[in-house]
Predict the structure.
Amino acid sequence: MSRPANEPPPFLGAWRRVYAAVLLWLAMLIFAFYLFTRAFNQ
Amino acid sequence: MRSLDWVVLLLSIVFIVFYGLWRSRGSNTVNKYLLAGKTMPWYAMALSIMATQASAITFISGTAQAYVDGMRFVQMYFGLPLAMVILSATAVPLFHRSGVYTAYEFLERRFDAKTRALVSAIFLLQRGLACGVALYAPAIVLTAILGIPDRATTLLMGSLVLLYTVAGGIQAVTWTDFQQMLIMFAGVFISLGMAIALLPGDTTVMDAFALAGAAGRLNPVVLSFNWQDEFNIWTGLLGGMFLALAYFGTDQSQVQRYLTGKSIAQSRLSLLFNAVAKVPMQFLILLTGAMVFVFYSFEKPPIVFNPIELQRLESQPGHADLTRRYDAAYAERRAAASRYVKTKDEAALTDYRAANFRMENIRKETGTADTNYIFLSFVTRYLPVGVVGLIMAAIFAAAMSTISAEVNSLATVSMVDIYRRYIKRDATDEHYLFASRAFTTFWCTYAIVTAQLGAGPVSLIVMVNKIGSYFYGGMLGVFALAFFFPRVHGTAAFIGVLAGEAAILGASQLTQVSFLWYNVIGALVVIGTGLLVSVLPAQRESSGPTSYGL
C-alpha cells in the first residue's frame, strides 16, 4: 500500500535538499565536461 | 562470431527469458499484471526506467554518433536531470494519489473523456511507430554479421519478448529490465575498456584524447547557439528538458514504470537515480565511440562500414581511384598519429587533422550512410572471443528491454483507455486480464511486422527522438495545463492539443528549427491556446478549479 505523500527521503532529510543535490551534480558534470572540451577539443 | 560468443549470447538470452517467466508468477489480477500490485522497490524501477530508454539503438548508434560527429550529442541529455526533479515534485505525487493505471486516465479525471481519448490515440500512434524502429536495430546486428535476414531476426526477438511479457506483464518486464540493464552496464564498461586497451602499446589515454580532440571528437560542451543545431548546451538544457519532461512525464512506457512503486518516495528515488546516472552513462558510451575513432587511426578503417554497401561500391567504375586516394589519406593520418605519440609535436596534430578531413570528404563521396555499422564492425573484427558474445548480449538485452516496456504500455493504454472505457465497461477482472494479454500479443506482433520500416539513411538514435518530438509537445502541454492551471477546462485542453500538434507540423514543414525545439513549441502553443479558450465568454461557465492540480 502507498505510504503517506510526505514520506521523507532516506537521506538529506528533505526532498528539496535532494533536488538541490541533483542540480548541483548536474552543474558539476557540465563544468567538468566544459573543462574536458577546453582541454582537448581543437 | 565464434562458438564461445554464441554460447555467451544464447545463455544470456535464455536466462533473460526464463527469468522473466519465473518472475511472471502471481500476475493473476489486472492490478498485478499492469501495476505489479504497486510493490516495486526504487532500484528495480530505476534500472527499468533506464533500460527502457537505453535501447539497442543507444549502443549501435550512440557510439557511432561520437565516431562521426564527436561527443556533443551528450548535451541532449543535460535537460534530463532538470526534468526528473520537476517530475518528482509534481507528476509523481499526482499520479500516485489519483490511483490511475495510465497517465491518460488522469486526464479524464482532470478534464474530460475526449481529451483522454485524443491523447491516448496520440500515444498509441507515436509509440507504435517507435517500437518498430527499436526492434529493427538488433536486426541490423545479425544481418551485417551473420547474413541472417531481417525478418528472421525481428521474428525471433519479438517472439522471445512476447513470451515473458504476455505471461508476466509489468512484473516480468521490470525485473527482466533490471537484469538487462546490468548486462548493458557491463557492455558499456567492457567496450570502453577494450577500445582503450587495443590502442598501440606506446599510446597513452592522454595521447588518445589529444588525437580525438584534434579531429573534433571530444566536444561534450558546445557553447555557441544555433536554432538549427540540436547539439549545443542551450538546446540541450531547454529542448532536452522539454523532451525529457514529455517522455518521462507523459509517455506511458515510462510513467507505467514508476506507477508500480510501493510509495511516492520509492518512485521519486527511481527517477532521481536516472537524473544522476544517465548523463555519465551517455558520456561513457560516446567516449567509447571517440576511442574507437582513435583506434582506427592505427588500424585502417574500411571506406564504408556497411559490408553490403561496400560490395556495391567495389563494383562501381570509380572505385579504384576512390580507394587509392582514401588509402593515401589514411597513410598520412596514421603517420601523423604515430609521430604525435612519439614526439608530442603540435604540428603532428595539425597534419593529423588535415589528413582526417580528407578521409572524411572521400567517405562522403561514396554517398553511403553507414553510421549504424561502425560500432558493430569494430566489435566483431577486433574484440576477443567471449567479449563479442557479451557485447552482443548487451545489445540484445537493450533491445528486448525497450520493446517489452513499449509493448506492455501500448497494451495497457489499449485495454484501460480504449477497451475498458469505450467497448466493455463492466466485465470481470479475469476478462480484463485476458484482454490485457490479448493486447500485449497484438502489439508485439505489430512491432514485428512494422520493424522493417526501421531501415533508413539517418542515424537511428536521431530518428527515434524525432518521431517522439512530433507528438511530445502536445502531450506535455496538456499535462502542464492539468497540473498547473486548475481553471482550464476539458474543451480548452482538447483544442489546445490540436493547436499544439498543428504548430509542430507547421514548424517541421515551414522552418529549419531543430527537432528538439518542437517539444517547446508544441507545449507552449497548447498552454497558450488552452488558457485563451478558457477565458472565452461562452466557455467560462463550464470551467472551475479541480482537486487534481498542484
Q: What stands out?
A: Chain B is about 75% helix and 0% strand. The CA atoms of residues 29 and 70 of chain B lie 48 Å apart.
